[in-house]
Amino acid sequence: MDKDKKLTRLGILVCLGGLAILCIAFTFFYYSKPLYQAESGSLRKMGTVAHITVIAADKQTAQRCLDAAIKQIDTIENLFSYFKPDSEISAINQHAADSPVRVSPQVYQLIKKSIQFSKLTSGAFDITVGPLVDLWHNAGDANTPPTDEQLQSARALVGCDKLILDDANSTVRFAVSGMRLDLGGIAKGYGIDTAIEAIKNNGALGGIVVIGGDLRCFGTPPHNNKHWLIGLQNPNLDSPNQTILTLKLNDTAVTTSGDYRRFATINGRHFSHIVNPLTGRSAQGLASDTIITPLAADADAISTAVNVLGPEKGLALIKTLPHTEAILISPAPAYKLSKTPGIDLLIN
Ligand code: ADP
Ligand code: MG
pTM to 2 decimals? Predict the structure, then answer.
């Protein structure tokens, strides 16, 4: 009897041991199975260059994810473009002074989110900034700065308080004729977020979507790395393409706003494409600011706002935001770098 019990116990142990070995072998096989990496190459999207990488278990999944992400970015560009005459933003800009314009849920929600960011940033971020952006753009083309009068009349058309929204009907209306919405400070980030969702929903294990230097990554990085490695470019154009630091990231977004890539030159002076909605002047407080936070739309809006607010007010704002870190670089010629304490954990 005793011997039988011992044999049964031994049998169970052998079975359990076998099961454990099987589990280990399966885990080893599963994780050592080569992953497939698909690259989009350089794509022309949203007025700049985009790049997508997808990590998946097989080639078909990776390709499906890439296709879905590209389709998403095109959809967002067609909805939000300031320049495409048939975008929903153009429809608002053409008709919202005359009557309420009904928009799709995505556009309505991003306009609502933008207004929240306007409140959060004390008006530094403001999607009604269109007339001021156009004024500075035209000033660059004419090589003549705008007059005080021009600045004043453009400023009179700016302010989220002049937007009339109707939640029940998803309509947008302008309180003042001549207003124009410009979602250039948030749509790129939002496009990145929706592309990442498309990649996740199509079964990828990891991926990164980069549009014009703004990006979001998730999941498994390439080459068995633990993190996605993101180099931060020096905004000093005397050192072109120089990386000033490398961030090690997982599941987060990074966006940069600055005057070093897109600007107007008037009488030899550099004017940023970001404007201060409160003064009407082009932003001057920072050469660049980089924001790290989970959603790319949030990072995009915050980085534009911090560029307007400048270093002190900008860092004070970042401190109040959860899961948000920042790297600020002061204007030429100093290019002094300041950062939030959490950045040190991402670069070591
Ligand atoms: P980039 O487009 O170079 O990534 P940003 O994300 O900072 O830079 O967005 C800048 C764009 O946002 C401008 O080209 C303009 O369309 C718009 N914009 C400019 N100033 C503001 C502002 N104060 N608030 C919201 N949007 C702005
Ligand atoms: Mg932005």
Answer: 0.91
